[in-house]
Fold this protein.
Amino acid sequence: EIVLTQSPGTVSLSPGERATLSCRASQRVAGNYLAWYQQKPGQAPSLLIYEASFRATGIPDRFSGSGSGTDFTLTISRLEPEDFAVYYCQQYGGSPLTFGGGTKVDVK
Amino acid sequence: EVQLVESGGGLVQPGGSLRLSCVVSGFIFSDHYMDWVRQAPGKGLEWVARSKNKANSYTTEYTASVKGRFTISRDDSKNSLYLHMSSLTTEDTAVYYCARAADYGDFFDFWGQGTLVAVSS
């Protein structure tokens, strides 16, 4: 099983700042098959990024994904008020599908 | 518009059973792999089970902790996905989400709003 470790657990930032979230895999993720999701309180997760760097439909370009192999990054270039949420990575290059523990982006 | 609506959650005693349902609309259900993902209170996401589509013989897969206790099934004629859960423990307490696997990869492009299963005496 591929274990995904997200860091930091929580990051406190101000609107307009840049957020850099890390997702590290315990072994290489085949095909760079890694997705990122955003979850707001009381809501289901929603897809942001797939295959490490492809934005899902309707996702603004301030969200970008990068990385390969075992190290992946989600960057939010300038935080908007609606971006304060929890972010999860998920790998689908191996079985079973696994998620990281999440990074909470909260308001400084 | 794609919609996934779960139902069937509730309070159940340890050792009990429950069946969750997910009714979908807005896409061709029979074409897609469908999954259940859960989230324990205050915790992260955990993939639970998968039902592949007809083209892949409706093959099912489970996370290790629910094998032998949970059964995923689907009825394409009713655009519905199910999760039958038995021998429930307190560790199964979570919000259960129905999720659609994307056409081009095993990630989830649409999610339901979730249904809460609470296992407690």
